[in-house]
Specification:
It contains 5 helices and 15 strands. With 336 residues, the chain is of the alpha+beta class. The chain has a domain of 218 residues. The termini are far apart.
Length: 336
């Protein structure tokens, strides 16, 4: 039986029989972020197998019956690891919301919408190269109380007459010291627990709705893979704190700009309390394809359907566009 995104059950692809997957909400636990946890977090018992890619070295968890699958990152074959590695059992999982066939249709539509892509690229899609994989993420919660200081600027416009008697306008800014306080609750701030993919490719892909988080069950992996986390809790925590600081700074500047025209020199002094974390899996369809000896990656958010990826640009189309612009400019200057 395999996990069926449409019915959110385990389903037999032959006879259609289905089995419910139990969602135990109390199993979705928040863990306190302590120095000890950040340094001593340990793996627990698992029922899946670790597969290691021969091409790029990615480690992915697959269900116990899998023997070989294609790597969603480089297209190479996985082999069962000689030594089974422990993996951290996730606190929750966001299940796939649509199947591989629907993902393929989304990918095809995306490729056809790339105007600068070579024409033959539209025929490169192969259904069996599109792999469903759960990516590991850390989520962080915290209550932030932050005092801030900044300078708020008021813009003034003043008319004057120059030495020739002409009326002119000059602009100047008067700066004023500003202080205030920001109170904000961060809930499920997502930080990638994988360093396998380019961060630019992941940006924007992590718009996952964690309210749809279900308690982890190995049945969700049936027919899919799940990458092992490779970013430590400690490193992810520092990244999350920096992102929280950046957001608080933006909030403070927005508050200053509600009274002033400009803002500069913003400094914040945050205090975080109630810090907790979870280890979760999020759904992504991934494919890697080669075009003229170069590898390109595409990701599809398995919850929202959002697509982000790389694709080659057609030199012929670019050259044709440049020539067309030159021709139009030449005609414009010739007639006008």
């Amino acid at each position: 039986m395999e996990f069926d995104p449409e019915s959110q059950t385990l389903k037999c692809p032959s006879c259609g029989a289905s089995q419910e997957i139990e969602n135990i909400e109390e199993n979705i636990r928040e863990h306190s972020v302590t120095q000890e946890a950040r340094q001593t977090i340990r793996a627990q018992e698992k029922t899946s197998h670790t597969m290691v890619c021969q091409g790029c070295g990615a480690k992915v968890e697959v269900d116990a019956l899998s023997t070989a699958v294609e790597c969603p990152y480089c297209g190479s074959k996985y082999v069962l690891a000689d030594k089974q590695e422990d993996a951290l059992v996730p606190d929750g999982v966001i299940p796939f919301q649509f199947d591989k066939e629907m993902a393929g249709q989304k990918f095809t539509s995306w490729v056809r919408g790339r105007f600068w892509a070579p024409g033959e690229l539209k025929h490169l899609y192969q259904r069996d190269r599109l792999q469903g994989i759960y990516l590991p993420y850390w989520t962080f919660d915290a209550q932030a109380e932050a005092d801030y200081q900044a300078r708020g600027g008021q813009v003034h416009h003043e008319s004057y007459q120059d030495s020739n008697g002409k009326t002119r306008t000059r602009t100047y800014v008067t700066w004023h010291p500003v202080s205030g306080h920001i109170s904000y609750r961060f809930d499920d701030l997502l930080v990638p627990a994988s360093n396998r993919l380019d961060t630019e490719l992941l940006e924007g892909m992590d718009s996952f709705n964690t309210e749809e988080l279900a308690s982890y069950a190995p049945e969700y992996l049936s027919g899919y893979g799940a990458e092992c986390f490779s970013v430590s809790l400690d490193n992810a925590y520092h990244q999350a704190i920096q992102e929280m600081r950046d957001r608080l700074t933006a909030m403070a500047e927005s508050e200053v700009l509600s009274y002033y025209d400009r803002v500069e020199g913003t400094r914040i002094y945050p205090v975080f309390s109630g810090r907790t974390y979870k280890h979760v899996l999020v759904p992504v369809y991934a494919t890697a394809y080669q075009y003229r000896d170069k590898l390109y990656h595409v990701l599809i958010n398995g919850q929202t359907g959002m697509i982000k990826g790389e694709y080659p640009k057609s030199v012929f189309k670019i050259a044709l566009c440049v020539l067309l612009i030159i021709l139009l400019l030449a005609l414009f200057f010739y007639f006008f």
